[in-house]
Amino acid sequence: MSRRQHFAFRTEVQAIFQDPYGTYNPFYKVDNVFWTVIRKFKLANSNAEGQRFMENALEVVGLRPSEILGKYPHQLSGGERQRIMIARAFLLKPRLIVADEPVSMVDASLQVRILAIFQQFKTEFNISFLYITHDLSTAYQISDNIFVLYRGSVMERGGIDAVIRNPQHPYTQLLINSVPVPDPDIRWEGRLKSSIAGQRQVESAGGCKFASRCPHVMQKCLENVPPEYEISRD
Question: What tens digit of pLDDT does each residue of 30-42 get?
Fold first, then answer.
């Protein structure tokens, strides 16, 4: 990319990472993450205008600027630190936010709040998300479409309802069967064992990556990568 193209890309694509503490420099106050964006991308013509941008972004993610600005990262909770990073991404009004396990290190109540912010960004500001997670429940809550990956390859993809409610690939079925059920009479370990019962341990040199764990493996699975085919248009 040329310098202009790279600048446009960095404006339109932003990232939110997993660790809400490791993304900060502990020697700087949290204001610094906003001023870095404002100055680098020339978002404001004055410090007063930049201050308004910061305060507006914090309010959008449900934080009070008076309680956040001027503090160091260690003085804030994990949920506050993660929402500050979401606010930083929001400053640029990007077309796409890549969110890598953004709620895995915050508690359940804050997970719901952060996912609600993502939904707000999508509906009110037309911001799309590439949401990367191991948690099928949050993926189901926020996604329109899902790609199920195993060892770097797509096993199944499609509309979120079609894939989660009626999974076709053995790996997707295994993932869903591995989700604990909130019922004390149903043992999670038993469900997990039954979901992998009968699997054969085989080596696949150039075939399907899931062959070593698939209960339906055949000889041709070890030799060739199975082609993609359409199950439904949902």
Answer: 999 999 999 999 9
Q: Domain ranges in the chain?
A: 3-143
CA 113, CA 61: separation in Å to the nearest integer? Answer: 9
What stretches of 93-178 adopt beta strand conformation (E)?
A: 96-100, 128-132, 145-150, 153-159
CA angle 220, 223, 227 (to 5 degrees): 75
Cα 78 from chain centroid (whole Å): 17
The sheet carrying 128-132 orders its strands as 13-16, 96-100, 128-132
List all residues 6 or more positions away from 189 whose beta carbon is below 8 Å from its beta carbon: none
Report the predicted TM-score, pTM, of the whole model to 2 decimal places: 0.85
Report the distance separating Cα 152 and Cα 160, nearest Å.
20
The class of domain 3-143 in CATH terms is alpha beta
